[in-house]
Amino acid sequence: MAVLVGKKAPHISASAVINGEEIVENFSLDQYLGKKHVVLFFYPKDFTFVCPTELHAFQAKLKEFEDRNTAVVACSTDTEMSHWGWLQVAKDKGGIQGITYPIIADTNKTIATNFDVLAGEWDYNEEGQMMAHGEMVAYRGLFLIDKEGIVKHQIVNDLPLGRNVDEAIRMVDSLQFFEEKGEVCPANWSKGKEGMNATHDGVASYLASN
What we know:
Number of domains: 2
Largest sheet: 7 strands, mixed
CATH topology of the largest domain: Glutaredoxin
CATH class of the largest domain: Alpha Beta
Strand order of the largest sheet: 2-1-5-4-3-8-9
Shape: globular
Number of strands: 9
Oligomer: single chain
Distance between the termini: 36 Å
Helix content: 25-40%
CATH architecture of the largest domain: 3-Layer(aba) Sandwich
Order of helices and strands: EEEHHEHEHEEEEHH
CATH superfamily of the largest domain: Glutaredoxin
């Protein structure tokens, strides 16, 4: 698994569904450069079971991300028409109707590959025929990207393991606190708590008071 933290996020240009209904071509994270932080998360499949719980959980907290000037963007290897179809299905029917943040269609699987979250692998048999090992879908990867397009945080879950959206918000708060204050965030830090100077004296002072 590639570690992208500290590196430029791979470029994205693909079809996406925005505002819960509009299909656009050449959707890119470049639109947020210099303007917003981005939480980009991958999920395995449309019309499944754990995935809608995550998509709705991010929607429920969307205002909290927006209040932090942070865009939420989802991505899976389904087509834009599959995304659009799922968006027409009511929440109580297992659908994602009501989701308003962008959902990218990674139909050629290059985005998941570039972010190194594609679950399956390509190979060739003795006859030179291409083979797929495992499902060619995305793991539950999440990437926090700063305004300069640099990945600052990543986490990847296996397919059955849903994520904690509050933790994603905490990481946004941590990054923004460091950017604004220049102080680092110790273990279990959350918004409103004090940070720490990255010096021996700073560490000693923090540990003594906590």
